[in-house]
UniProtKB/TrEMBL annotation:
Superkingdom assignment: Eukaryota
Gene3D superfamilies per UniProt: set domain protein methyltransferase, domain 1
GO molecular function, one term: protein-lysine N-methyltransferase activity
Domain SET residue range list: 30-271
Protein name: SET domain-containing protein
A single GO cellular-component term on record: nucleus
């Protein structure tokens, strides 16, 4: 996309010229610069104190005019006077009306407008036409080679990455289909010989958005130049916060309890509770001092021999999986889908076809002859049932087996990952190999902890009078396997 006309590599501007761009666009810095940390140039650019900074006594470190906040509202404003971009945005229909769709389309258009090899320029140039050249190439897992992606086998990132790449391909096909009937797009973007847009370009603008978008109060998901150069630190290590001032400008503020020495780094948080998988997926790194995977998501499926399986899948309005969270008191989990798996017709779950007031027919779930309006709150219904301990034990047993299955996949691929050659002259770069190894270790530790925790829960529930009475009742010949 933004290429030098001879090579296919992304054309980047040196960050030491960013102050010129900032001055032209009324961006103000007070006590900070943007560049590599002294002695740590390999970490890329970040926000650095150019003098000693004292919490509670500093004005905004960076102020970005509201017109430079790249939000859905700002993009719609730009489309009003950029007819070329407006045609692209309108062609995307519903996708173009989302913050993600609009911002990615805008970044793609600005990158095309900035491309030095494009002779027939299209689109209206603006501040972002140059700013995109300062954004570094992010080594997110979507850019990993197939050999590098195989290192993730058994981790929760492996299915998430596959799903993401499939989604990105669908989005890319969508934008190609939506703009192929625009003459200049057909000629300059999609022509088989001279077309300049490739799937890698869509990967890059997606990486810009995922790794740099922030949720601003009153604005929503957006990108903010210069502030998006700040690196991440969670917890008490976070040095600054970002917000919007009373004029609608984006500002970076030093936390009251923080003092930063000259040449110190000004960090923000990308999310204190994000797990190792999400950090690697969205930002391409795992915090150096992260001692736990924090959380992970495991998919769940309704057993194929479940007689109500198709009906359950049709009415489920919740994600088909569960989230496991490392907590101070053991391991907690969250996921409504499992309760659909835990109960069946003999327990009181049934389905019936009901005609709506509009005359259409829909499938309705009932529990103990009472309608179930969505399964997000189904657990609270089951908790009131006399057999709650039985359902709870079923859930814990399913959870433990799902965790065991994940551990088998993870440990089963360990030897292959350990033996993988990496570094110069191989298909696997050092950084992806080390990141994959770190993720595997953190997730295996959390899964082992979860397995042990569920074993304790299961043994405790097995002593419940409700469970004992249920297992010794008239249906004892159909005793359930809770092993």
């Amino acid at each position: 996309m933004i290429r030098d006309g001879k090579q296919r590599g992304w054309l980047s501007l040196p960050v030491d010229s960013l102050p010129v761009w900032a001055a032209f666009n009324s961006v103000s810095f007070d006590g900070v610069d943007i560049g590599p940390l002294p002695g740590k140039e390999d970490r890329g650019s970040t926000v650095i104190a150019n003098r000693s900074l004292k919490g509670r006594h500093e004005s905004p470190l960076i102020t970005i005019p509201r017109d430079l906040i790249l939000s859905l509202e700002r993009i719609h404003e730009h489309a009003k006077f950029d007819s070329d971009f407006r045609a692209v945005l309108e062609g995307l229909d519903d996708f173009g009306r989302t913050a993600r769709g609009a911002i990615l389309a805008f970044l793609l258009m600005q990158s095309f407008t900035a491309c030095p090899s494009v002779v027939k320029k299209k689109g209206v140039s603006g501040p972002f036409t140059e700013y995109v050249k300062y954004l570094p190439m992010e080594l997110l897992p979507t850019f990993w080679s197939s050999a590098e992606c195989e290192l993730l086998t058994g981790t929760t990132l492996a299915p998430a990455l596959t799903a993401k790449l499939n989604s990105l391909h669908r989005e890319f096909d969508q934008i190609q289909d939506a703009t192929s009937n625009i003459p200049w797009c057909a000629e300059q973007w999609w022509d088989e010989v001279d077309g300049i847009i490739e799937f890698d370009d869509w990967l890059q603008v997606d990486a810009f958005y995922r790794s740099r978008a922030l949720e601003y109060p009153g604005v929503g998901d957006c990108m903010v130049p210069c502030i998006d150069m700040a690196n991440h630190t969670s917890g008490t290590g976070t040095a600054a916060i970002y917000e919007v001032d009373d004029q609608g400008n984006a500002v970076l503020l030093l936390r009251d309890d923080k003092d930063i020495e000259e040449n110190g780094e000004i960090t923000i948080t990308y999310g204190d509770n994000k797990g190792a998988c999400e950090m690697l997926f969205s930002y391409g790194f795992i915090e150096e001092d992260m001692q736990s995977a924090r959380e992970l998501f495991l998919d769940l499926s309704i057993p194929g021999d479940d007689p109500l399986g198709r009906a359950k899948a049709a009415v489920a309005n919740c994600a088909p999986g569960l989230k496991i969270v490392d907590a101070v008191k053991g391991v907690i989990w969250d996921g409504a889908y499992i309760w659909l798996i835990c109960v069946n017709e003999e327990d009181g779950l049934s389905f019936q076809i009901q005609q709506t007031v509009e005359g259409t027919r829909e499938l309705i779930a009932t529990w103990q002859d009472e309608p179930v309006h969505g399964f997000e709150g189904f657990r609270s219904i089951l908790e009131k049932d006399p057999l709650w301990d039985v359902y709870h034990l079923r859930a814990v047993s399913i959870l433990q087996e799902r965790v065991a299955s994940q551990l088998r996949d993870l440990y089963g691929s360990d030897d292959r990952v350990d033996a993988a050659k990496h570094g110069d002259g191989t298909d696997i770069r050092d950084r992806p190999w080390h990141l994959a190894k770190r993720l595997r270790l953190l997730e295996s530790e959390l899964l082992e902890k979860a397995y042990s925790h569920y074993e304790d829960q299961k043994l405790q529930l097995m002593q419940s009078e409700t469970v004992l009475r249920y297992l010794s009742g008239p249906n004892v010949e159909q005793e359930e396997d809770f092993s």
